[in-house]
Amino acid sequence: MSSYTLLGSLCDFIIKLNKNIQSVALINNHGRVIEKISRSEFTKQFPDHLSELFCMSCVLQISMGRDFDKNYGPINYHISERSNLTMITFPINKNIIITTINKNTSPITLSRKISHIINDHMRLL
Fold it and tell me: Which helix or strand (DSSP H or E) is residue 56 part of?
């Protein structure tokens, strides 16, 4: 089984973790979507052309943060809260998992749960 297949199954596992997770995407270090799972009501809110720009901005944010890994340690996750949703990005080697959640859940609690799942899943790779 390829590492992308295992990471794709990780996306599926994450979206099933909590009903407040709207979408999960696996993107490469160039901002290209490798795998994307969305709940049907969220797909309409986030068209593909906006998705590509959004993914590239997430890669840039994580990439710039990696410049400070020696001083502060690696990024576990990055949370960005907006007025109607919260986005959480998780660096995984050269890839990034992006989750979007609605405002009805604690982003820090959910981020920690997802981080533990990712770490457990990465041991399989």
Answer: helix 48-66
Residue spans of the domains in the chain: they are 3-122
pTM: 0.86
Contact 112, 34 (CB under 8 A): no
**Beta sheet of 95-101, edge-to-edge order:** 33-38, 21-27, 95-101, 86-92, 78-81
- Calculate helix-pair angle for 107-122, 3-15, nearest 10 degrees: 150
Tokens 């998780």 belong to 90
CB atoms within 10 A of CB 112: 13
Out of 1.10.10.10, 3.30.450.30, 3.40.50.1240, 1.10.600.10, select the CATH number for domain 3-122. 3.30.450.30
Task: Provide the token pair at 74.
Answer: 């690696």
Share of the chain above pLDDT 70, in %: 86
Distance CA 110, CA 107 (A): 5
